[in-house]
Amino acid sequence: MDSSQELKPLRDAVHSALVTVTRSVNSLSNEDLQFQRTVHPSVAARLDQNTERLLQLARGVLRSASEFTAQRKPQLEDVDDVEIQWKGLVDVIDCLLEKSDTCLDEYTGLVKRKDAPTSELGRELKRSKSTTSKLDWSMKRANILKPQNAFEKKIENFESGPWKPLLTTKPHARVPLETSLETFVDEDGRPQYKHPYEQEITTMQYPKEVYRPCEPIQYLPMENTKAIWVDTYDGVLEMLEELKQATEIAVDLEHHDFRTYTGLLSLMQISTREKDWIVDTLVPWRHKLEVLNEVLADPKIVKVLHGAFMDIIWLQRDLGLYIVGLFDTFYASDTLGYAGKSLAFLLKKFADFDADKKYQLADWRIRPLPEEMFYYARSDTHFLLYIYDKLRNELAEFATQGNPDGNPIDRVIQKSKEVSLQRYEHPICDPETGVGNRGWYNTLIKSPTLYNGEQFAVYKAVHKWRDDVARHEDESPFFIMTQQVLSDIARIMPTDMKALWSLLESNARGLKPRLGELFEVIQEARARGATGPTMLQFFRESASGPPRASLGVKQVATAAVQDSEPLSIEELKCDRSQLWGDVPLNSSLDGTSKNRPITEQEMIPLYTFDFGAVKEELPETTQPLPKSTAKEDTVAVHIPEDEGFTLKTGRKRKASDINVESTPEAEATSDVEMGSESSSVEDQTESPDVDEEEEEEEEVGGDAEAAKAVRKQAKKTARKEFNRAQHRAEQLVANGDIEGAKEFKAHARRALRAAKKAQRQQQQQTSRPAASSAAEEQQPFDYSKASSVLHAPRAMNGDGGGKHGKRGKAVPFDPYAKKSGDAPQGARKMNYEKAGRTATFTK
């Protein structure tokens, strides 16, 4: 019988039962159950029994569904929990319904049934998204027994002297081991051991096949091959014999650093063209893995890694392994200019494989290793040799195109050699100066918080205490205490143990046995800090002292501590623009200008620019000036900062000034005449714009140019007098003499009006004879000398319509007349409002 026909009766029966239950539930919801429970005690007992039975059934369904769907099981203690944990219930039921729908489709033949993975190939099949859930927190930070406790060679976190390489033998050596293990003094004055394979790496010649294009060797399908799990020493020796026959191998590592002080190399993946190995590096005898140097240090075998900077360090630190003949595919992709340089990008580009990087931060100490993590670890090296072939061919083709920077493959090899020469050093933490990769200096220099003497001393003391505890317990300092908790303790400085306990987070609750010890450290540091330097003083002293090569933040510290002191001009000058790069900032600064370079006295720092120190140099003139009492004192201009400014409507103009061309002096004069007497001096001291465009007037007759020159000189004289009056008035305002400033300003304007009147009279005397003679000659109309239509002079009319008011006076332009559009206009002004003020804005 067809499967779909077998399913139909079952589906109909289930559907009928669900419809019946739904109808019963709807009918019950229409009843007042609370009233029935109160009136009939027997009904209340039955309802409680059914409620408990339904909750028990729901718990069973959720328990089974959560195990099947890998979802977190909601806890239903009573009816209220259904509403409280409604989101979790919906997630579990939705996932269950999706899986049911998939099973029904497979059963009816709508989709092809997926074969269950066999025990042999179970590790090789990549889990689909429907069966692969997100990593549980226990998988990310598994609370397991520390594997380092079972190591035959214990980890020493309290170093004494420089870190010595773990090598006992040196395969493929050009320099003997005893000779290569020499010490030297680094740039910080500390003794260090040299790289044991430094001579071999620097003088190595890569095989000729690396430089030649080749036909890429296709990788084997992962479904048809299997990876070998290596967790015995015999398995390591068998793998080693096969690796010796290869000409290139791919290597990758997985690391863990949350539950250990220095870190743990947890897994090593090695692949050839035919096989993949997953090596357990957490076995108690892991120091015996040093035998892999017979392959990793062999210059005839190319080792392909991606982003091997930290891999080189981890191999040295934990296993005493060194790589000679590294080819880093990261630098190859960088040289070729790829848009992405990650391993996931290369896997997608060349192998069309989507790497699931959510396992990258998983806890790789978990044993046995879950299938998803095993598959992810294998995929990192399974395709890497094929990617190496593709990149090598592109680099060879790139070299044949006449690259001006040299052979690209040589650049990749040089970068790979530099990575191979990295050395591991002990983590350093100087408790007083904060120097070292585990110190506090680089953290505090970026912090916006400034601690006083006591807080700074507490921060340093707690930081040292945390580092000592982490070394002793072999834990990460951040597992012992997060940076936020450390900052809170230094900032608050708890006065009792209860307050200190409240500052610790959940992962720091393991410090409860050491709570008294920590509190004592805080109190002692607080007493020392009462007479000690503050954080700002410390950074000021460190910035002024000799530079620290290991910190690289001296300039940052200098800028951070000198915010309260004036900077010199030399500190403000920059030789290279952060925006434009090496483009010269100024031709006079880079020496290319033909003129002389500017001196330091001519440089004015913008942040200290004082407008009050600027004095205007007024030119001398032979034109007689109008009589005025204005003094020729030049005063500093004071510009107020962060004050409001006011926009005003236009002022009315006197009828006698309508036919006269508009000048800045006339505008200022009319402002004084028509302005309110109650307005302040600041509202009446608006400087005229000397650069404002003026209309050209028609000149007729032989004296036109002379008249024009006279008017120009008169205007210049008026502007000069007005500017001097402005400066004098502002000086009086600065001295507090407001009334004197008003009188002085009014007197200056009267002088300006007198000068303007004399100018107008002279203009009329010059233009009238010329106009009459022109009319008699009746010359043709010259359009080139016609007055502007767009800027036509305002006409005198008394109709009061249009844009002119009564008696021919023009209505001033109001920029806020239509600011509200078609909205209703506001009420008319009250008596106490000042004329001309419309809106005030604040910067």
UniProtKB/TrEMBL annotation:
Domain HRDC: 452-532
Pfam families named in the record: DNA_pol_A_exo1 (PF01612), HRDC (PF00570), PMC2NT (PF08066)
Keyword DNA-binding: no
A GO term for molecular function: nucleotide binding
Transmembrane intervals: none
Subcellular location: Nucleus
PROSITE patterns for the chain: HRDC
InterPro entries xref list: 3'-5'_exonuclease_dom (IPR002562), Exosome-assoc_fac_Rrp6_N (IPR012588), HRDC-like_sf (IPR010997), HRDC_dom (IPR002121), HRDC_dom_sf (IPR044876), RNaseH-like_sf (IPR012337), RNaseH_sf (IPR036397), Rrp6-like (IPR045092)
Domain of life: Eukaryota
Composition skew (Acidic residues), residue ranges: 683-702
Residue segments, region Disordered: 619-843
Biased composition (Low complexity): 760-775
Keywords assigned by UniProt, alphabetized: Exonuclease, Exosome, Hydrolase, Nuclease, Nucleus, rRNA processing
Keyword set includes Amino-acid biosynthesis: no
GO biological process: exonucleolytic trimming to generate mature 3'-end of 5.8S rRNA from tricistronic rRNA transcript (SSU-rRNA, 5.8S rRNA, LSU-rRNA); histone mRNA catabolic process; nuclear polyadenylation-dependent antisense transcript catabolic process; nuclear polyadenylation-dependent CUT catabolic process; nuclear polyadenylation-dependent rRNA catabolic process; nuclear polyadenylation-dependent snoRNA catabolic process; nuclear polyadenylation-dependent snRNA catabolic process; poly(A)-dependent snoRNA 3'-end processing
CDD domains listed in its UniProt record: Rrp6p_like_exo
Sequence ranges of Basic and acidic residues compositional bias: 629-641, 719-730
GO cellular component, one term: nuclear exosome (RNase complex)
Record's compositionally biased regions (Basic residues): 709-718, 747-759
Similarity comment: family membership: Belongs to the exosome component 10/RRP6 family.
Full protein name: Ribonuclease H-like domain-containing protein
